[in-house]
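Allow me, if you will, to draw on your knowledge of protein folds for a short while. A protein sequence and the structure tokens that stand for its backbone fold form the material at issue. I would ask you to consider whether the tokens describe a fold that such a sequence might reasonably adopt. Thank you for your consideration; the sequence and its tokens are set out here:
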Amino acid sequence: MNAPGQPGNAPTWASSAKDLVGTALGSSRVWFTVGYGILNEVFWPTCSQPQIRDLGFIVAGEDFWAEVKREHHYRLSTPAPEIPLPRVLHEHARYKLQLEFLTDPLRDAVLIHYRLQGEGLKLYVLLAPHLGSSGHDNTAWVAPQALMAAHGETALALMADGGITRGGAGYVGESDGWQDFHQHGAMTWQYASAGAGNVALTGELAATSGTLALAFAKTPEGAHTLAQSALASGYKVARSRFIAGWRSWARGLKTPSLTPALSREARRSAMVLKVHDDRTYQGAVVASLSTPWGASRDDPGGYHLVWPRDAVEAGFALLACGQHQEARAMLAYLIATQQPDGHWLQNNFGDGRPFWTGIQLDEAALPVLLAAKLDEVGELGEMRPQALRMVRAALSFVAATGPFSPQDRWEENAGANPFTLAAAIAALVAGSAHRFLDAAEQDYALSLADDWNARVESWVYAEDTDLDHEHGTRGHYVRITPPCETAERGRVVLKNRAGESLRARDLLGMEFLYLVRLGLRAPDDRRIRDTLKLVDTLLRVTTPTGIFYHRYNEDGYGEHADGRPFDGSGIGRAWPLLSGERGHYAIDAGEDPLPYLKSMLGGASMGGMIPEQVWDTAPIPERFLTPGRPSGSAMPLVWAHAEFLKLALAAKRGAPIERLQAVAERFHRAPRPRVVYWRDDSPCVHLAVGAQLSIEAREPFELHYGHDAWQDAADMPSTPVAFGMHAVQLDPKSLAARQSIEFTRRFFGPRGWEQHNWQVQIASMGKT
């Protein structure tokens, strides 16, 4: 009989509050997550594709029933911090339920070992399939000794070695097992099937101890075969192989010796990064095996997508702790997914299919830094020819698109920001210094990097503002400056805040710290110190678990004031990874980084998972929101674990892993730019006497120009320069006796004259 209530409630994903994540280091292509002490999202055959919402349990007797995840009273342990084998003990006045979760190293199956203690009680399993990464249009049915589900070419089977006494299929919120117990206090529904909807399966387990196998395949028959063979092989065998695989991998880990708790978290963080690496597509590291505020939404992407920025952050962290093979695999994957024009997708599924399609300049620059670091430590090897092609294409995109980016690292605004500028400038130098470029490209890349570095403050630094007057600073770096604007007069639209805007000079962020981290500015630079004073005053929040920072003032990406999930608007909460960024600066400035490491650990889950955000205001117990503890955002966040691991290693080594020797050496000398590169989206207003002016565009043009109010007007055609750019380069000698140059351009083709006159003042002040 088919269950009533089709299609069921609108589907959502599980909570992002993960206790632990895991996978086996073998041929299995399954990743699991544990939250609220039960199995929730399981991914197959890549870590971009979740296939269930959760698999939980009900304990019931004649006069009693309880769903264990709602009791929320359990403990979790693992054999070692680097072995993701969670053992959970749920404790209740009427029962104890012990669960242990692992992936079968040889099969696409998750095994759950269970043991229930309590007089006169039975154990029931509740399974919510979301096959094909969707809770829509799933079908579910009860087979002999198995619970089955399918959607298109994806199927699952759940079996128990002790057998399933009774089973039922239903629709979520209408005829599922939880509703049955809620209405009747017992399992009374045994519907044979539920088709085309948001379905759920319920099974009464015949034994109070044993093993469950949840297997995935393209066909129901295949899933059934895998589940049955996993049970036949035995839990002890799978467990032994699981632990051996992780111990073998962990022998190569080089993690620092800090406090015992911090040292454990460093090894755990390395494990988290390894877990998030794909098996089908090696090197495809997803941002998180979770969906932020997942229990309130049906989001097909969540954070289980590859962001090139997050992947590079993980690559640097694994490289720093001796995992060179993983870092090389990540670079190989980035080479494979680079777009023809040199940039990378904002994010993509593991197989390379796009999800969001924004463009972020830092995501084009950071893979170059990873390639250069691998070269610096002698680990690039046979990848060099492919890396050379990748770097040339990436730097062509960076050089032609920069210095303004279509999106910042928070994926919200276009403009110039210190983080992206630092990454782009460092990449240009690294590409040249590590000989990824030919001679002409090297000269151009270094010259462009010198110019952009000298002009950083003209783009993203404001002086003598109301904010400075209030806090006793002379000036500060802003979070972002909109295109064709200045930090003093531009306005920035606040995303997630219904179109509100703020003056750029009033918007602070932590992006400026990367100018120090990559070696472009000294830690004691007055401008850095002044901005840090403002950030530590306005973005820093102290909680019972430690020190955290907001992304920027007036951020709207987080829960509402009453704790309701983010739904397109909200209030930005504090980010542990930013504590890591502050800690990296502390090392350069001669301060103690341990308070920031301890804060990041303090904000982690009971299993050591570091979240994207922590709750930063008064507690709301009914929503499980506690100051300094994880909010409903993504957890674990790969970027946060990478930041923790890098900071822990930098605390011992005294320098960040991302800093390249060639970049630090070049900007330690702070070379004076020989050429100033003028572009219509980043025009210079002043030109120092003796500097060459290069007027550029992405297409050929003819320059019509004159001096000192259009005297001696003349025309000059552009010539091709490096990276596909076209330029007219004006000799410094011809400008020496002039006060200004005026010009306009005629482009070939339909664009024609640009209908705008430009002017550059020539002065000895050196300001460009």
User: Anything to note?
Assistant: The chain has 19 helices and 34 strands. The chain has a mean pLDDT of 96.
